[in-house]
Records
---
Amino acid sequence: MTMANIITTFAGAFIFPFLIRLCWGKMCDAWGAIGGWMAAGFIVGTTWTLTHGVGIIVQSGGAWIDMAWAAGAGLFVASAMSGDDVSKGFVNVVMALIGGTLGGFILSCL
């Protein structure tokens, strides 16, 4: 993997949790439950298209990384840096790792 591929992969992995942290709560506050559904469609859909469709994230080798890992790790670090309770966020990181592993396993079976 070239240095340019490494940089774009990290940038692509950063975009997803950044948009979640920046927009998701505001959309839910403004539009209620439908705002959460809209955030899920717009944020996840747009980020997936950028990272996988356009090709910002470059995956090489046999390992397959799921977006849940980027979201879980990125949101955990953002919460820790903003002074939130890290022990509450640890459960979310574990669930993101389980979900990412399960998603990657299912995709490897295809």
---
Amino acid sequence: MNHINGSLESIKDKIKNHTAAVSVVGLGYVGLPFAVEKAKVGFSVFGIEQNPIRAEKVNRAENYISDVKDEELKQVVASGKLKAVTNFDQVADSDAVVICVPTPLTKNLTPNLSYIESVTREIANHLRPGQLITLESTTYPGTTDEVMKPILEEVSGLKQGEDFFLAHSPERVDPGNKRYTTHNTNKVVGASDANSLDVAVLFYQQTILDVVPVSSAKAAELVKVFENTFRAVNIALVNELALLCDRLNLNVWEVLDAANTKPFGIMPFYPGPGVGGHCIPLDPHYLEWKAKEFNFNTHFIALAGEVNRKMPEFVRTKTWRLLNQKGIAPSKSQVLVMGVAYKKDLGDWRESPSVEVVELLLKDGVDISYYDPYIPEFSIGDHKLASVELTDDTIGAADLVLIATDHSQIDYVNLVEKAQLVLDTRGVTRHLDCNQGKVVLL
């Protein structure tokens, strides 16, 4: 048996027997659920987390990710199957290394791959024959082959597909989704050589119900970027419709609810104060940036981003309009913002349009208070804000209540009854009978 077949069969046997050691780099909303799933079926998992506070929490089985069940985290930590570390020393003893690090954009909307490059160099320093490296971070097509592969091969002196195996399998996590989890969400896997694809598909099949192989890492990277671009474009369409309905003095929610009764040829999307989170505001720009390398301009994608970025400013303008109609200057007003998370029932305010709206209103001199049961405090520059207690007096004291995030646990009937005026950017009150003329929809 030659060394290629030896490395290939050795890691495949370990994966099948669940005796492979797995390192997961980054224990955030993607990494921790993945690490727990692997540990649950018997793999020995090391979570490499450079935030020592997070690492300590994992080792104490203190959960900080809503998609992870407390009892499952406690079980895998207590059994010794999951342990968090803050360095890369365990990589040399691992059979598979899964990278789940952030891929932000610069201020100029260009990809920032510094986390991927840094982690890849760390892994390369410990790389040995027979290991599988997979990238789950969302990025532009070509990152795995054009950025990671050269670093791994140059630093280690090993060759992909012969000595080690490299693949891309983009994360498909929908935080807060109770139906689709890491285990039952179809997983796309791509690699630029047959051996790497073979090993990676087998690895993911151990804990994920359906694995979908594609012809290359580049194809897998494009799959994920397209998925989120699809959402961004359709959200932009309904956001633009909301802007038009505002001019036409029509209720955009009525139009959308009626349109969505069609049993074919349409898919529900809804407007809001903007787009937020770790994917939709960022991922289309990866594709837009990469396309320019081939002298191709993605006009449609660029326009969608432009429309979505307008929405916080539109909410600001509509807030002004409503306050002025009450005879109150924005700089003399009190506004209570309901929710600053980017998505309902989550404690995540990354890239949240609600936060951007708050920032704009603060610049206008508005006296801002907010309520969010999942985010007790946050900062915007020098402004430190803390969630207020949601009482009838708190609601009634505000000149305007701005519903920016539609958390489920809020009593919207009582909110409308006690408020002087409500601007609902999420349409959560549109079917309530208690409107009493107080509610203005986006």
